[in-house]
Amino acid sequence: MTARRLISAALLAFLAASAGHAQQTGPTTGFDAPPPPEPVRPTKPIGEGETVKATHGDWQVRCVTEAETETCALFQLALNPEGNPAAEVTLVPFVQEGVSAGMTVLLPLGIMLQEGLIVQVDQNPGTRHAFRVCTTNGCLARFGLRTETVDQMKAGQQLLMGVSALNLDAPVALQVSLRGFTRAFAELNEE
Which uninterrupted H or E stretch holds 186? Predict the structure, then answer.
C-alpha cells in the first residue's frame, strides 16, 4: 500500500470515527429553540403513598393513607418574582382558640434564619414566624394561622411570604395564589 493510500485510509477512518462526535444538540445546532410552553402553575411530584384527592384553583388536596387512616392537607408551590417554584406550602386544619389552620413552609437552604418568614395576605399587615429546623431538604417554618388570617385568605387574592437569603441583596416576596383556597379549605375541614 502506498503512503498516499495509507494516509487516505487513516483520514477516512478518523473522519468516520469523529462524525458521531461532531453532532451537537441544544442552542448551538442552529435550530431555533421551541416556543416556551403556556404558563402552568407548577406542582411538586406526588410522594410515595400520597394522592391528589382534589384540585381547587391553584390548591391541591393531597392525602396519605396509613393504617386505614387518611390524612389530608392543602398543598401549593410558592413562586419567586420570576415565576419559578421557590417553596412548598402545606396547610392543615387546626382547632385551637383563635387558630384555624397550621402552615408549614419548606424553603431551600441559604435563607437568613434570624430574619424569619413574614406572611401577609394582600395589603393586610404581615406576621413574622420563626424557622424551626433545617434539614438536607431545606428549612422549615411551622406555625398556626389565626382565624382572622384564614378569613383574609378566603377573601384575598394572594399570600405573600417575605424571606431573606444569603445570595440576595434584599428580601424577596414569594407568591402563593389564593385562587380556589376557600373551596379547598372547606373540603379539608369536611375530612
Answer: helix 181-190
**Phi and psi torsions of 109, nearest 5°:** -60, 155
pTM above 0.90, yes or no: no
User: With contact defined as beta carbons under 8 Å apart, do 61 and 188 qualify?
Assistant: yes
Consecutive H or E run containing 11: helix 3-22
Query: How many helices and strands, by DSSP H and E, does the chain display?
Result: 3, 11
With CA atoms as reference, report the closest residue to 135 among 65, 88, 99.
88
149 CB burial (10 A radius; 0-12, 13-18, 19+)? buried
> Is the separation of the CB atoms in 71 and 103 below 8 Å?
no
pLDDT above 70 (res 73): yes
User: Residues near 68 by Cβ (< 8 Å), separated by ≥ 6?
Assistant: none
Crossing angle of helices 181-190 and 147-155, in 10° steps, is 130
Helix (H, G, I), strand (E, B) or coil at 58: coil
- Which CA distances in Å does 189 have to 72, 95, 146, 184? 10, 10, 15, 9
Find the helix or strand (DSSP H, E) in which 151 lies. Answer: helix 147-155
CA 184, chain centre distance (Å): 18
Dihedral sign, Cα of residue 70, residue 72, residue 77, residue 78: negative
What pLDDT digit, counting tens, does each position of 136-190 carry? 999 999 999 999 999 999 999 999 999 998 888 888 999 999 999 999 999 998 8
